[in-house]
Design a protein that fits this description.
This protein has 374 residues and is α+β, with helices and mostly antiparallel strands. It has 3 domains: 115 residues, no CATH class; 130 residues, Band 7 domain (Tetrahydropterin Synthase, Chain A), CATH 3.30.479.30; 78 residues. It has 9 helices and 11 strands. Strands 6, 7, 8 and 9 form a 4-stranded antiparallel β-sheet that branches. The protein has a 3-stranded antiparallel β-sheet with strand order 3-2-5. β10 and β11 form a beta hairpin. α5 crosses α7 and α8 crosses α9.
């Protein structure tokens, strides 16, 4: 093609502006070369045709040949966009619109060009570690010392946390032109924004909460902050997910942190055991107190009832006493003696006979155990 000597694209699918630095009109074609002169290209093409055509070939034949060449050049502008792609049409480097999947058309090179972007493909960026593309294993910090500079972050309580996370992102299907023209290195930009957002969130948190309860809160907060910053850049990048893989203290002090964590777990365990013991003892004490109160209430009710019964009995006896005092006194005497002498040994003395009257207590006799006749 005419641009092959000037560092331009080799086909219509390449980026016509090199590395897209500064947008389509930022720095022109690659290597700083000026754009081709169309008149010079046409003149050279005519001279080449004159050399190729036979001497008897008239002007009409040359016109037909030129028309066929023009038609072939126009037909070369058809291109296909894959189902996971979006095409960006450019005319003289100016963005005119985007095309969806299927067969599309744009003026061919050098007038027009097409940039195809895979908008549904998801990309992953690791921060704080590197992953082996073959085995998928993480490299250690000694193998990748630059990862330590990414993962060590200062917390809000002036501690250092070793944070490793992964960012999943893709091109925004609604604004692929922003991705194509507004940022120079998309992967590096997303990585820098992700590291900056994570450092800001970690810098506002305490290390103990980061290690325990706040880990699930960091992921959505980092994703929202990243998306906000990238949208302000008009980058055309959509952050799909932020995965927090590990949050640990630095390797130099991890033993001390584990001891502190174990002590805090012991403190929490002992507190839980104390709460459980209190929860078992307090209800028992409350139940015993309630039982004593209920017994006291029952005793009070019983005593009051007995007192009221005795008072009522006394009133009834007094009514009978007023009607027959002598008889009542005798009955009271007999009843009293019955209660007093009922269980004592008794001796009956008959004053008229001047002696002891015979008395045989009936309870002293035991029933006959044999076969008695009835």
């Amino acid at each position: 093609m005419p641009w092959s000597d000037q560092g331009g694209p080799r086909n219509q699918n390449d980026d016509p502006w090199g590395q897209r630095q500064g947008g389509p009109w930022g720095s022109g074609p690659r290597n700083g070369a000026p754009p081709p002169d169309l008149e010079e290209l046409l003149r050279r093409g005519q001279e080449g045709l004159k050399q190729l055509l036979p001497s008897g070939f008239g002007g009409r034949g040359a016109a037909i040949l030129g028309l066929l060449t023009l038609m072939a050049w126009l037909l070369s502008g058809f291109y296909t966009v894959g189902p996971n792609e979006i095409g960006l049409n450019l005319i003289f480097g100016k963005y005119l619109g985007k095309t969806q999947a299927g067969l599309n058309y744009n003026l061919p090179s050098p007038i027009g060009s097409v940039i195809k972007l895979a908008v549904t493909d998801r990309n992953a960026i690791e921060i704080g570690f590197r992953e082996d593309g073959v085995s998928g294993r993480k490299h250690s910090a000694t193998q990748t010392p630059e990862a330590t500079e990414e993962s060590l972050m200062l917390t809000g309580d002036e501690n250092i946390a070793d944070v490793k996370f992964r960012v999943i992102w893709q091109i925004d299907p609604a604004h692929p032109e922003d991705f194509a023209f507004n940022i120079f290195e998309p992967a590096l930009t997303v990585k820098a924004v992700a590291e900056s957002a994570m450092r800001e969130i970690v810098g506002q948190s305490q290390i103990q909460k980061i290690l325990t309860a706040d880990r699930k809160l960091i992921e959505p907060a980092c994703q929202q902050l990243m998306q906000k910053v990238l949208d302000s850049y008009r980058s055309g990048v959509q952050v799909v997910q932020v995965l927090l893989l590990s949050v640990d203290p630095p390797a130099q002090v991890i033993t001390a942190f584990r001891d502190v964590t174990a002590a805090q777990q012991d403190l929490q365990r002992l507190g839980n055991e104390a709460d459980a013991y209190a929860n078992s003892v307090v209800p028992e004490a409350r139940g015993a107190a309630a039982r004593i109160l209920q017994e006291a209430e029952a005793y009070r009710e019983q005593t009051v009832a007995e007192a009221r019964g005795q008072a009522s009995r006394f009133d009834q006896i007094y009514e009978q006493y007023k009607r027959a005092p002598a008889l009542t006194r005798e009955r009271l005497y007999i009843e009293t003696m019955e209660r007093v002498l009922g269980g004592a040994d008794k001796v009956i003395i008959d004053q008229q006979q001047s002696g002891v009257a015979p008395y045989v207590p009936l309870p002293a006799f035991t029933p006959f155990q044999g076969g008695a006749h009835k």
